[in-house]
Amino acid sequence: MQITTISDTHGLHHQLQLSGGDLLIHAGDVCNRGTQEEAANFIDWFEKQPYTYKVFIAGNHDFFFEHFTQQEIQNILPKNIYYLNDSSIEIEGINIWGSPITPEFHNWAFNRKIGEEINKHWQLIPNNTDILITHGPSFGLLDKTFHNQNVGCVDLLKNVERVNPKYHIFGHIHEGFGVLEHLNTTFINTSSLDFNYKMRKTPFFNFNF
C-alpha cells in the first residue's frame, strides 16, 4: 500500500501538490483558528485528493472538531474519508488508531493534563495497532522545539513501546520534522509547515506498507 503523510497544514493545504496513492494520512491541525469554515474547506480539499482512502485526526488548533463526537463527524464526511478520535479503523488488513490529544499547553483544543488524565487516552491504543496517528510526539523522539526543549509526552512513549506499531505518525512540533527509528517503530514527524508556518519544500512523506 502506498501511503502519504502530512500534518499541520493550518489552512494552507491548497499549497500542497500530492502525488496520489492508496492512503493519505493527515495528523492534525487542519485549521489555523479552528472555525467551521476552515474545517469545511479542508474536508472539501481532502475529498478531492487522488487517494483511495483518506484518514485524518484533529489537532490543538482544530477547535471545531472538539464540539462533536467521532461518530458525529464521521456522519457528515464523504464515504472514503475517515476521522479518528481515540478510535481505530482497519483498511485492507492494516490496523490504524488515531487521537488528537496533546499535553496541556495554554488553552488549546484537545489538551489534557500530563499524568493520569492523558494516560487514559494512550491506554486505549490497541495492541494490534500497525499505524499509530497522534497529533503530538512521544518524548525524546522528533519533539525538540526551537528552544532545544523536548516537549513530547512521556506516557505516550511508554504506550508506543507497549504496542510497538510499525509506524507512529505525528506532527505538532514543526521543528521536529523528520524520520527516526526506535526499537521496531518508525517515527515520522510529518509537519508540513516549518517553524515560521511556511510550507516546506518537501512537505510530506511517502512510504509503502
From TrEMBL:
A GO term for molecular function: hydrolase activity
InterPro entries the record matches: Calcineurin-like_PHP, Metallo-depent_PP-like, UPF0046_metallophosphoest
Residue stretches making up the Calcineurin-like phosphoesterase domain: 1-175
Protein name: Predicted phosphoesterase
Biological source species: Flavobacterium haoranii
Lineage: Bacteria, Pseudomonadati, Bacteroidota, Flavobacteriia, Flavobacteriales
